[in-house]
Structures are given as structure tokens and as C-alpha cells.
Amino acid sequence: MSTPQEVLHIGDRDVIVTNPAKVFFPATGHTKLDLVRYYLAVADGALTGVRGRPMAMKRFVNGADGDFFFQKRAPESRPPWLETVELSFPSGRTADEVVLRDAAGLAWVVNLGCIDLNPHPVRADDLDHPDELRVDLDPVPGVPWSQIRDVALVVRESLAALGLVGWPKTSGSRGIHVNVRIERRWTFPEVRRAALALARDVERRAPTLATSKWWKEERHGVFIDYNQNARDRTVASAYSVRPTPDARVSMPLRWGELPDVRAEDFTLATVPGLIAARGDAGAEIDAAVGSLEALLELSMRDEGEGLGDAPWPPNYRKQAGEPPRVMPSRQRRPTADYDTPGAEAARQKARAALERRMERDAAGTTRPTPTGRRRSTIPVIEIARAARKDDALAGLERWRTRWPAASAALEPADVLVDAMRGRSTTWTRIRVNLTHVTAADRPPQEPLDPDYDPRSEWAADAR
Known about the structure:
The structure is a single chain. It is built from eleven helices and 17 strands. The protein is of the alpha+beta class and 463 residues long. The chain has three domains: 5-120 and 235-287, DNA primase, PRIM domain (Alpha-Beta Complex); 132-233 and 290-295, Alpha-Beta Plaits, CATH 3.30.70; 371-455, no CATH class. The strands form five sheets. Strands 5, 6, 7, 8 and 9 form a five-stranded antiparallel β-sheet that branches. The protein has a five-stranded mixed β-sheet with strand order 11-12-10-14-13. The longest helix has 21 residues, at 341-361. It is globular, with a radius of gyration of 23 Å. The relative contact order is 0.11. Mean pLDDT is 88; it is low at 354-376 and 458-463.
């Protein structure tokens, strides 16, 4: 039996949608074709965020409730009119990534299962100089939506003081993004450095609401994720549908709307009508290009006062001036010991050995051990590892039931939910910081529940 398909005529191009009736959002009943038609309806706004940019494809081939995987390399079987560009990554590898220019390109990637769009902050004609600084406001568990909105307004205040214009949007998940168009004069490390200075400035302006601390065990309130500006990092762009049960959308906003906005108001079903009624709040973003000079001057002042670099993502080489690449609860040596040539050689060796070990031992019986074996200054235990976040959270609820006194003493920031990178998908780890639990009520490290083995992805590839 042939695969059901529908041919869409988009401009002067034809795009085939396979399995158009396949349900992508079971809770709402929206199909793959509904998703494609949504992106065509909002194409002008969506293309403002992705046009001319290389894009990592995050593919949900079985819909929002299914597993996903990241595909950086453009498929070999692609239409001749689809553009690609070769990107280099921190690992040293390269890939030809998709570059969208028109509505037909949008429809083509959505047909592959791309529910949301994840472009890089550079244009295809200059891959070394970003034209967008990205402010990602990521709340720790338990932070109310009103606090995230308040922090976004502080971001606006900070940007204005530095001569920059921010363009807010809901993330479509739990947070808010503020994008800033910038001149293409600065490298990725410089843009990240500017983003770190901005995060610290917002933290100074609202110390009880926001944090720039990288390690989850040190965070509170709303984390300003400066590392989203490192090379190879992507975020969902404007008008992206997110893989949530209600098909929520990352919606551009006007600053005057922010104090009263509700993220759940923006969905695949509602956004096309909202744009028709009130226009595209982000339509003029490309006309508001600013300079990073004032932010970089602020960074220099911070450095002069002893605020150096902050931790980078784990898949990057340790940078000059970066603090130890280790959680504070696990630091067992003096800081200087982490900056020696020998320490860097050990890190390089560990990174190289990780993938070899995963592939060699995928079928073995040795399992990664929980964090409880380590002696630490901060009492952190690991609760769950799961391929799906919902399964890990269910394990956390079972732990709370077993240890009600400890659970009641936890603050929102004490529950550390980490999206961990696997071979081609992410998995979820949950840890708990027991600092606020009295010693008598602190549970021991137990066997993980559930106890997902991330090396199973390597095992599947080996079969």
C-alpha cells in the first residue's frame, strides 16, 4: 500500500506532505497537515526568525508525544531548490545544515516532523559573526509565571540603559525569550561574553528574582541562560509550535502586553487569528540593529571587579579564565588545580574516552552510578534517570511519597531537572539538593527510579 500524501502548491514550488492525516497532537487532534498549514498561515512572521539561517532539525516523526532526535545534516533526498550551508561545531565536526528562505521550505521541514524551528543566530553568508543576542529566561521549578514576566521587564530596562532594543516572546514552554538584533561585528565568544554581562546586570537589578548562576544547585528564581549564545546553541524561534499537549506557540509580544500575557493563550489554533487581528509584534525586529560596545564595556568593568568568566556548556573545551568545570558540590581540589596543563589533558582524554566507552560497553552490565557515592559539600542525591521527562518526574513523585518530611522541606530550586544529551536525543536526570532538609530527615542515596541507561542508544546503533 502506498503512503498517503498530499501535494501543496506553494508559490512556484510543490511540496509533498506524507501521512497528512497523522495525528501529531493527540490532546487537540491536530494532524501533520494542520501543523503544515499553521506554518503557512504564519509564514511571514516565522520566516523573520529563520530566513537565511542554518537550522538544526529537531524531528518528532511520531508527533509531539513521541520521541525526537536532532538531525544536523540535511537529508540527501531533498529538493534541488533547498539551500544548505556547511557549519563547523565545537567538536571539530562539520555538517551541511538546512537554510530556509521561503514558505515552501517551512512546509518541507515540517513534513519531516520538525514541530518547532531551531535556527542558529547567524546568517548563511557569515557563520562567524552572530546578528542576534538571545536572552533565555529559564525558571527553576516552582517559579510563578508572574515572576518570569517581571524579570523580562528588568531585561528590557537593562537593555535600554545599554542602548539596545529587546523583542520579547513567550518560549512556548515555561519561559520567555528576548531577542536583540546586533551588528555583525563580534564573534561568538564576544557575544556570549556580552550576554553574561547582561545576565549579571539583570541579577544586580533584581537579585531576589533572577540569577546568572550556571550550576542548577546554586540557582534560584529565573536563570538567565547566557550560554545560549555559545556557538552551536539554538533556541526555538518566533511562531514555533512546541511539543506540548495544547500545541503551544512561541509568540512574539509587544512590551505593553507583557504584564498581563498568559502563555497558554497562544496555540496552533489561536495564533493565526491573533496575527490577523493585531499584526505581528516582531515584524520590525530587523530594523532595530544595535551595538554590543556598551555591554562589552560593562563586561570589562565586571572583570576589573573580579567577576571573570562563568562556566561553559560541557561539550566545549575549557576556556581561559573559566572557573572549574565541576559542580560546586563535587569540587574536591583547589581551584588552581583545575587549570594546569595536566588537568586540561585529562579533560581532553575524558571527552575522547566517553564515546569510545559508550560504544564499547553498550552491551555490558556495568551501569553509571548515582551521585551519592561522592563526598560533597552540598548534599545532593540523584532520584531518577529516564528517556522521557514525564517518567523521571513520576519517579520524583514516588520518592516524595516515600520521604514526605524531606519533600516538605525542599524549596523549588532544590529540585534539579536536567535535560542530558544522548547520542541523538535527550534524556532526563533528576537530582535533589537536601541543603534545606535537616540531617535527621535526609534520605540516603537509593537505587534510581526509574534507572534508564543512556548507553542504550549506543547499543541500538550497534545492533
